[in-house]
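> call design_seq(struct)
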């Protein structure tokens, strides 16, 4: 057999789709619709960035797996790496016009990431790194053992969330 995933965009007052797309041979892993201008359709090795108004599509494709997508009100951040996460994770940043404004690689394992402005905050084992849009590490800090998620709360601070506690970490 062959997978056939279908995307339908409906208006609130009709059951008829205003836009649809078929993904033959692909499974849609998720849809991120936080952004007012665009939404993102996430597959194993692709992300379609679709405009809400004109339904125009820009496609991010990779030979690796899409690990995470975070949309803010002005940007969309996509991370991708090999399945075994060999220590190289690529990040791509798109603006609301669906243009790629930045791409770079992080050298090290990425357990999870968070976003504040155009900075990416990476949890890599027991450390948190702040990376600017050029791919440069501008700040970092140790967050201790057992952290499973981070949340950037300001440009210099993150919450480090573990199974048993939440700590505020100041990046230096």
């Amino acid at each position: 057999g062959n997978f056939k995933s279908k995307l339908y965009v409906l208006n609130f007052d009709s059951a008829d789709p205003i836009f649809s797309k078929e993904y033959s041979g692909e499974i849609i892993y998720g849809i991120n619709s936080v952004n007012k201008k665009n939404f993102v359709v996430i597959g194993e090795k692709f992300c379609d960035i679709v405009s809400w108004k004109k339904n125009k599509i820009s496609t991010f494709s990779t030979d690796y797996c899409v690990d995470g997508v975070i949309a803010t009100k002005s940007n969309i951040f996509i991370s991708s790496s090999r399945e075994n996460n060999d220590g190289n994770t690529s990040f791509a940043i798109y603006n609301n016009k669906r243009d790629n404004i930045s791409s770079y690689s992080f050298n090290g394992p990425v357990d999870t990431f968070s976003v504040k402005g155009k900075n990416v905050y990476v949890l890599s084992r027991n450390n948190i790194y702040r990376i600017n849009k050029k791919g440069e590490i501008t700040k970092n800090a140790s967050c201790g053992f057992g952290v499973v998620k981070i949340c950037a709360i300001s440009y210099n601070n993150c919450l480090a969330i573990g199974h048993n506690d939440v700590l505020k970490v100041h990046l230096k």
